[in-house]
Amino acid sequence: QVQLVESGGGLVQAGGSLRLSCAASGRTSSRYTMGWFRQAPGKDREFVAAISWSGGYTYYADSVKGRFTISRDNAKSTVYLQMNSLKAEDTAVYYCAAAAKPGWPRSLSEYDYWGQGTQVTVSS
């Protein structure tokens, strides 16, 4: 019902910034909680950030607090992840996801739709 497409990934130097975008199409009238996850080589996919439909509530993994900012523009059906002060350990494939539930979904199983992922590589 919902298609998610990430963009904005690429290669960046440590200490630099990057902004990821997630464009949604299809059943975008639903009030989905949106989240970002990432998966580094050899590791499990992990929660990064989430934002409520209204944008009034945001949640972050401890590893990115103070550096990453999640936001959304419902009129444009787009979610963003602003990443600052990037570190080599941030290198991963980043995925956008939508959850048809309120609160703070952090588990992969709570999300109903996923994007294809976009590669972020931080060089040091």
- The multimeric state of the shown protein is single chain
Spans with pLDDT under 50 lasting ≥5 residues?
none
Number of strands: 11
Q: Alpha-carbon distance between the termini?
A: 40 Å
Shape: globular
Classification by helices and strands: mainly beta
H/E element string? EEEEEEEEEEE
Q: Summed up, what is this model?
A:
This protein is an all-beta fold. The protein is built from no helices and eleven strands.
Describe the 3D structure.
There is one protein chain. This protein has 124 residues and is mainly β. Helix content is 0%, strand content 51%. The protein is built from no helices and eleven strands. The chain has strands spanning 2-7, 10-13, 18-26, 33-39, 46-51, 58-60, 68-73, 78-83, 92-99, 113-114, 118-123. The strands form two sheets. Strands 2, 4, 5, 6, 9, 10 and 11 form a seven-stranded mixed β-sheet that branches. A hairpin with a 4-residue loop joins strand 7 (68-73) and strand 8. The chain is globular. The model has no long low-confidence stretch (mean pLDDT 95).
